[in-house]
Amino acid sequence: MEWFLANSAEVFSLAGQHLVLAILPMIFGVIIAVPLAQLGRQNRGLRSVVLTGSSLLYTIPSLALFIILPTILGTRILDPVNVVVALTIYAVALLVRAALDAFDSVDEDLRQSAVAMGFKPFARFMQIDLPLSLPVLFAGLRVVSVSNISLVSVAALLGIGNLGMLFTSGLQRDFVTEVVVGIIAILILALLMDSILVLLERLLTPWTRAAAASGAGTDAGTGQAKPGTAAAALRLSRPEAGGGTA
Amino acid sequence: MSNVVTDTIAWLTDPANWSGSAGIPVRLAEHLLYTGLVMVIAMAIAIPIGLFVGHTGRGRVAIVALAGALRALPTLGLLTLFVLLAGIGLMPPIWALVILTVPPLLAGTYAGISSVDRNVVDAARAMGMTEMQVLFRAEFPNALPVMYGGFRTGVLQVIATVSVVAYINLGGLGRYLFDGLVLSDFPQMLGGSLLIAGLAITVDLVLALIQRLFLSRGASSQPNRSQQAAVDLTDPALAETVVQGGTS
């Protein structure tokens, strides 16, 4: 505790670097994975290429990827860009799978109704498919967030600044406190990120709470601009939630 | 850049790197040995607990919470902590790895058992099977594809993490990365990284092949759903989704 108080400025600055290295790949991951999954759904060949490719990339251990990437990207080995790119690759691999499953779970009748109501493909994707896929996407994002925050610390072995530095310097100096502070700080970061994601999901998917609170089907017309989406979500949220285990 | 590539190829094909106690075959054997050791211990812990929880449903919430919390533990932090507290040697890092490997195995075992069709379980019980028989002759065989998915995830995670172990004076292919880092010998680092990546991909393909040869028959005679689950669980995201789905 004393050590932490004496060095809190340094710990916070490392935590800041840690967060940046963990969050950027999540954002890039979503931006790349969602369109990729949508394209994969429309094209069977592409779908299997995307799935095979992403699971192959996912098997490459992070430490190895941190070292292989500079050769491909032409960056220096200490460049944080390597970490961001490596973690983005993992995030895409995980999220593409989650997004494909999420899009597949959207009711075909619903999609047809949207077309009948005059939705153009892009509007339909943005207003029907994407919102209904959010719960599954967020489940994927939460896994990415936790694993990113843990993986970033591995980059400290190569000398890239983040909370993992507390581990390497703690080991070199035979100083347990520093390592413990590092572990606790990383756990707090992971918990913080997870809470933010849960909160964000709640804000973006209000209908799932309506379904849980009042049972399916009671408030179909919530007076929103897109009643179709809300009502459909009410129907869909249930099978989706228990889909994996039933 | 091409310079680095040719140097790395030169490093990988240099006969001197393929013999002796620091040679690639020895490092590879060490890597696989650590991985095997961790997997044996972790399975001995995770499978009985997973079977118990999956069969009785008791302690489900605790397992899901524990698996989630352990997933957030930084590998490197745990490794350094164990080494500082227990000293250099083979076992401290091995125990740290075991702690990190138990959650996916436990989640896979539990999810596998609880994904078995309730009708199958009830039918087995109605036929007069004892609880042990229900578990080992009805639930276990049906859960095997999903459990295997958890096993596959676990093995790959351990192979990846064992590369980090070299940082604390153990062997394995990770040695090349850290030796190379100290000497600023980038071809050695890149060569080691390529070996690790190649090992991970090869092992994953072998495990997939085993799954196809020995497990698909049972799974394909199943209703579609459980086969789907077996495929999904090979990556941690959906394993987690499934496990989380169980709590809601």
Can you describe what's shown?
The complex is a heterodimer of chains A (246) and B (248). With 246 residues, chain A is mainly α. Chain A has a single domain, classed as Orthogonal Bundle (MetI-like fold). Chain A contains 11 helices and no strands. The longest helix of chain A has 35 residues. The C terminus of chain A is likely disordered. In chain B, 82% of the residues lie in helices and 0% in strands. Chain B contains 11 helices and no strands. Chain B: It is found in: Cell membrane; Membrane.
| Shape category of chain A | flat
**Biggest β-sheet of chain A: count, sense, barrel?**
none
From the 3D structure, determine the CATH topology of chain B: MetI-like fold
Order of helix and strand elements from N to C terminus of chain B: HHHHHHHHHHH
N to C succession of SSEs of chain A: HHHHHHHHHHH
Q: What is the level-2 CATH architecture name of chain B? A: Orthogonal Bundle
The CATH topology label of chain A is MetI-like fold
Classify the secondary structure makeup of chain B into a structural class. Answer: mainly alpha
Number of helices of chain B: 11
- The overall pLDDT of chain A, averaged over residues, is 81
Radius of gyration of chain B: 21 Å
Q: Give start-end ranges of low-pLDDT stretches of chain A.
A: 216-246
- N/C terminus separation of chain A: 47 Å
- What's the shape of chain B? elongated
Which keywords apply here?
heterodimer, A: 246 residues, mainly alpha, B: 248 residues, MetI-like fold, 11 helices, 0% strand, elongated
Write the layout of secondary structure elements.
The complex is a heterodimer of chains A (246) and B (248).
Chain A: H1 2-6, H2 8-42, H3 44-59, H4 62-73, H5 80-104, H6 108-116, H7 121-152, H8 165-172, H9 176-204, H10 206-214, H11 227-242
Helix pairs in contact in A: 2-3, 2-5, 2-7, 3-5, 4-5, 5-7, 6-7, 7-9, 7-11, 8-9, 10-11
Chain B: H1 2-13, H2 24-56, H3 60-72, H4 75-86, H5 91-114, H6 118-126, H7 131-165, H8 174-183, H9 186-220, H10 224-232, H11 236-247
Helix pairs in contact in B: 1-9, 2-5, 2-7, 3-5, 3-11, 4-5, 5-7, 5-11, 6-7, 7-9, 7-10, 8-9
Subcellular location (chain B): Cell membrane; Membrane
Main location (chain B): membrane
Transmembrane segments (chain B): 32-54, 61-88, 94-113, 155-178, 190-210
